[in-house]
Design brief:
CATH topology of the largest domain in chain B: Rossmann fold
Order of helices and strands of chain B: EEEHEEHEHHHEHEHEEHEEHEH
Strand content of chain A: 5-15%
Shape of chain B: globular
Distance between the termini of chain A: 29 Å
Largest sheet of chain B: 6 strands, mixed
Order of helices and strands of chain A: HHEHEHEEEEHEHHHHHHHHHH
Helix content of chain B: 25-40%
Shape of chain A: elongated
CATH superfamily of the largest domain in chain B: P-loop containing nucleotide triphosphate hydrolases
Number of strands of chain A: 7
Number of domains of chain B: 2
Number of helices of chain A: 15
Radius of gyration of chain B: 22 Å
Oligomer: heterodimer
Low-confidence stretches of chain B: none
């Protein structure tokens, strides 16, 4: 008796079977559920605020006029706070955290020793001095005389290097101003990319691509394990002795892998509020590309692993390096050339641009093309490895 | 269809430099059980892999249900059932789910999974996951999976290997039922008792070659010597005497039969194993 069975029906049957098997795999089922809940929880635990202000301490002795001028300027600039400190030694101790700085209601600065919070004036607020600028007492006299006095800039270790450099420029500007000479250059700032001045992405915003990528990674382990079981138990041989062909098997694994990894990544993005009316399209395509990439990796590691531990180790070996670019999102401007050349970078970058900066197709399009090239390479490699394995068992 | 369900002509297969199947030829008719009897490594499983399309023949040719085995034909594979030596089932799925999944690959909408499981005595475990099954139960599952598409040809690779006598007998019964339905069965085994009981014809295979192919009776007649074993009381013990069944022994046999010390007389024929050793110089267990 000959029955007709369509390729679609065969592929659908294998996908249904894979889903059923996943639902019976307690380890990965729990990992997936716990991972999703944990990542969503972590996202909402991370502060959604951005530290945008910079507190600059200026040694006041002999510099009253300058301090007053800068304090006046700071009142109109939310990002800058100027705190006068009496001596260079106190300023250094304040920046180093060896002295605690309080500001009274009348604007007076009070320094107290560490751990002596009880000595703080009533109603005062704590001030963290990020940077201290200590001018010599005779700074004005020396600069107007055309000499070069030494100005010491103290910075907290947490202050980014670019801010430290900016402070050096500020000191030069002050020196020119006090000496009565105009700056020899006119400064102009051009922001490349999205200008987020006053609207910086918070750590929570930056976390979105990393969490989505973590989900893709965890589900890659599940996919890899499923394929490895199919190979090690030789059930694939039984499947291929029916009217199912190796192409059906590969198509089913592609659909299942993409649904498993991409579906959960999208679920996570929805749970952390990343899917909006404008972002869902670009995010869907970006996540699908990422899911296909990890499906290819799952095919490679699932085919090559000799046992559970071997498959796990191999998957970690291939997947963990791909997480490196997510750190460049957490710390913008830190992506080295080799990081940007990694296959996962275009996907992570696109996820970041869409979720953090609200970028659309025009902004992420070129990056997605780069991602597509990597996805094709990795996916085709995965398909070829799995096909060869399935056919030669 | 008319003609043999399986037709093999000068079939060859090599793993690299090692020639595992060396030009074998045989036919299996619908309703016939052909037993492939040989020791491990003789080429039995390789032959099944070639005939089921898992391996491409290196030379010669074979057809299954009229289709060349070198041609990838899903229609042909929809009409065969295969029982592997290794128990390649989905352990986290129940017996019913395993059968229903494979049935769906054949395009069977409402498979009678329970009916098939009933035939192999597993109906009461239909909902249990296969990973909870004993070795014998898994083997019965393998047989039931081979039946799920009501195949016209069955390839059974060591279907009762390592099973207890009761389970083995149950599986043999179901195989005979399939053959009675008109299914051609190619059965590999190194169990001469199983081959003797089940197979209509037996092919002795050794080192990739068929060294003899005939019915069990003909093989015994052709290669064995029939004899009579006579047991006689002798003092406190028992004495045995074996006489060939030929004219030269008739007088001696009559003499012993008339002896007051006679205990038993049994006719004896060569076992398949003895014939195999005679033909190949090696045993079936090797």
């Amino acid at each position: 008796m000959t029955r007709q069975v369509s390729r679609v029906a065969i592929v659908a049957a294998i996908v249904r079977k894979d889903v059923r098997e996943f639902s019976r795999d307690t380890l990965y089922l729990v990992l997936s559920a716990v991972g999703l809940v944990m990542f969503v929880g972590l996202f909402y635990l991370v502060p959604d605020t951005v530290e945008e202000s910079l507190t600059v301490g200026i040694q006041q002795t002999g510099m009253d006029e300058l301090v007053s001028a800068y304090q006046a300027g700071a009142e109109t600039d939310e990002a800058l706070d100027v705190v006068p400190v009496d001596t260079a030694e106190h300023l250094r101790a304040a920046v180093a955290g060896d002295l605690e700085v309080y500001r009274t209601a009348s604007g007076e600065t009070v320094l107290v020793g560490p751990g002596a919070a009880a000595q703080a004036p009533e109603g005062s607020t704590t001030v963290t001095v990020d940077i201290g600028i200590a001018f010599p007492v005779d700074f004005v006299a020396l600069t107007t005389a055309g000499q070069q006095p030494t100005v010491t800039v103290y910075t907290d270790a947490d202050v980014p290097s670019e801010v430290q450099d900016a402070m050096t420029s500020v000191v030069r500007e002050i020196a020119y101003t006090l000496s009565g000479r105009p700056l020899p250059v006119t400064e102009a700032t051009v922001v490349l990319g999205t200008d987020r001045t006053g609207d910086q992405a918070s750590m929570r915003d930056r976390l979105r691509p990393m969490l989505a990528f973590f989900v893709l990674m965890i589900e890659t382990f599940a996919l890899s394990s499923l394929i490895a079981n199919e190979i090690l138990n030789r059930t694939v041989t039984a499947v291929l002795l029916t009217p199912a062909r190796v192409g059906d098997f590969l198509a089913a694994k592609t659909i299942y892998g993409t649904l498993l990894t991409g579906g959960q990544a999208l679920l996570l993005l929805a749970a952390i509020g990343a899917l909006t009316a404008t972002s869902w399209g670009p995010l869907l395509v970006t996540v699908l590309l990422g899911a296909l990439m990890f499906t290819g990796i799952g095919m490679i590691t699932g085919s090559a692993g000799k046992d559970f531990i071997g498959t796990l180790f191999l998957t970690m070996l291939l997947v963990l390096p791909l997480l490196v670019p997510t750190f460049s999102v957490l710390f913008p401007g830190t992506a080295a050339g080799w990081v940007m050349a990694m296959p996962s970078y275009p996907v992570i970058d696109a996820l970041d641009q869409v979720t953090s900066d609200g970028a659309g197709w025009s902004e992420i399009g070129p990056g997605l093309l780069g991602a597509l090239v990597w996805v094709v390479v990795i996916y085709v490699a995965g398909v070829l490895v799995l096909k060869r394995k399935a056919e030669t068992l | 269809m008319t003609g043999p369900a399986i037709s093999v002509r000068d079939l060859r297969f090599s793993y690299g430099d090692l020639e595992a199947v060396k030009g074998i030829s045989f036919d299996v008719q619908p309703g016939e059980i052909l037993g492939f009897l040989g020791p491990n490594g003789a080429g039995k499983s390789t032959t099944i892999k070639v005939l089921t399309g898992q391996l491409k023949p290196s030379g010669g040719g074979a057809t299954v249900l009229g289709t060349d085995v070198g041609v990838d034909d899903p229609a042909m594979q929809a009409r065969i059932g295969v029982c592997f030596e290794e128990k390649n089932l989905y352990p986290n799925m129940s017996a019913t789910e395993n059968l229903e999944f494979f049935a769906s690959l054949y395009g069977i909408k409402d498979p009678d999974a329970l009916g098939v499981l009933r035939r192999v005595g597993l109906a009461d475990r239909a909902k249990d996951r296969v990973k909870t099954f004993s070795k014998g139960m898994r083997q019965r599952m393998m047989i039931s999976r081979a039946f799920i598409n009501s195949p016209d040809v069955l390839f059974l690779d060591e279907p009762t290997d390592g099973l207890d006598p009761v389970t083995s007998a149950a599986i043999r019964t179901t195989i005979e039922e399939e053959a009675a339905r008109g299914v051609a069965v190619l059965l590999t085994t190194h169990d001469m008792f199983e081959a003797d009981q089940l197979a209509d014809r037996i092919a002795f295979i050794n080192n990739g070659e068929i060294v003899a192919l005939d019915t069990a009776d003909n093989l015994k007649l052709t290669y064995g010597t029939r004899s009579v074993k006579v047991r006689l009381r002798e003092g406190d013990g028992v004495r045995e005497e074996v006489l060939p069944l030929d004219g030269a022994s008739s007088a001696r046999l009559a003499e012993l039969a008339a002896s007051p010390d006679l205990l038993t007389i049994h006719t004896e024929e060569a076992t398949l194993e003895q014939i195999f050793i005679q033909l190949t110089g090696r045993g079936l267990a090797g």
